[in-house]
């Protein structure tokens, strides 16, 4: 959301370029925030333990946890700590190809949380730590049958 600042037009303001045809009542609204840029969407498929597939879209820059939350996906207990890296409830299993294509490898903190996850394997990651990029369009991830909330 852009922060709007009211500026009085004056001789100094005109020198700085604060005047325009849109100036009204000697005031102008100047936006100093970043413009909302449209981001490309990528599709992700979450495969539940029973084989059901849930397709959802997320924007480049979102985490897989964001995709679950923003699309209100029915994944019990997923993301209990809201991405603060204090639980292992957003544990996902990737194919070896997808795991190796991720730009960032798991941090020590993520590995510590993964040690507490059920059904841990070599290609396990936490969804809150996987950030969507263009090349992840069509990504498929397995959701383990049970979650372990490391906070309890």
UniProtKB/TrEMBL annotation:
<dbReference type="GO" id="GO:0009055">
    <property type="term" value="F:electron transfer activity"/>
</dbReference>
<dbReference type="InterPro" id="IPR012675">
    <property type="entry name" value="Beta-grasp_dom_sf"/>
</dbReference>
<dbReference type="Pfam" id="PF00111">
    <property type="entry name" value="Fer2"/>
</dbReference>
<feature type="domain" description="2Fe-2S ferredoxin-type">
    <location>
        <begin position="42"/>
        <end position="147"/>
    </location>
</feature>
<keyword id="KW-0753">Steroid metabolism</keyword>
<dbReference type="GO" id="GO:0045998">
    <property type="term" value="P:positive regulation of ecdysteroid biosynthetic process"/>
</dbReference>
<dbReference type="GO" id="GO:0046872">
    <property type="term" value="F:metal ion binding"/>
</dbReference>
<keyword id="KW-0496">Mitochondrion</keyword>
<dbReference type="GO" id="GO:0006694">
    <property type="term" value="P:steroid biosynthetic process"/>
</dbReference>
<dbReference type="InterPro" id="IPR001055">
    <property type="entry name" value="Adrenodoxin-like"/>
</dbReference>
<dbReference type="InterPro" id="IPR036010">
    <property type="entry name" value="2Fe-2S_ferredoxin-like_sf"/>
</dbReference>
<dbReference type="GO" id="GO:0140647">
    <property type="term" value="P:P450-containing electron transport chain"/>
</dbReference>
<protein>
    <recommendedName>
        <fullName>2Fe-2S ferredoxin-type domain-containing protein</fullName>
    </recommendedName>
</protein>
<keyword id="KW-0249">Electron transport</keyword>
<keyword id="KW-0411">Iron-sulfur</keyword>
<keyword id="KW-0479">Metal-binding</keyword>
<comment type="function">
    <text>Required for ecdysteroidogenesis in the prothoracic gland which is necessary for larval to pupal transition.</text>
</comment>
<comment type="similarity">
    <text>Belongs to the adrenodoxin/putidaredoxin family.</text>
</comment>
<keyword id="KW-0408">Iron</keyword>
<keyword id="KW-0001">2Fe-2S</keyword>
<dbReference type="GO" id="GO:0005739">
    <property type="term" value="C:mitochondrion"/>
</dbReference>
<dbReference type="GO" id="GO:0051537">
    <property type="term" value="F:2 iron, 2 sulfur cluster binding"/>
</dbReference>
<dbReference type="InterPro" id="IPR001041">
    <property type="entry name" value="2Fe-2S_ferredoxin-type"/>
</dbReference>
<keyword id="KW-0813">Transport</keyword>
<keyword id="KW-0443">Lipid metabolism</keyword>
<dbReference type="InterPro" id="IPR018298">
    <property type="entry name" value="Adrenodoxin_Fe-S_BS"/>
</dbReference>
<keyword id="KW-0755">Steroidogenesis</keyword>
């Amino acid at each position: 959301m852009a922060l709007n600042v009211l500026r009085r037009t004056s001789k100094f303001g005109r020198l700085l370029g604060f005047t325009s045809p849109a100036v009204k009542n000697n005031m102008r609204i100047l936006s100093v925030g970043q413009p909302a840029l449209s981001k490309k969407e990528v599709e992700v498929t979450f495969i539940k333990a029973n084989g059901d597939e849930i397709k959802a879209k997320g924007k480049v820059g979102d985490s897989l946890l964001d995709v679950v939350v923003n699309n209100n996906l029915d994944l019990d207990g997923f993301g209990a700590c809201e991405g603060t890296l204090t639980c292992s409830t957003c544990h996902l299993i990737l194919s070896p190809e997808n795991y190796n294509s991720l730009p960032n490898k798991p941090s020590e903190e993520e590995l510590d949380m993964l040690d507490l996850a059920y059904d841990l394997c070599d290609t396990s990651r936490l969804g809150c730590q996987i950030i969507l990029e263009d090349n992840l369009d069509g990504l498929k991830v397995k959701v383990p049958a049970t979650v372990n909330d490391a906070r309890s």
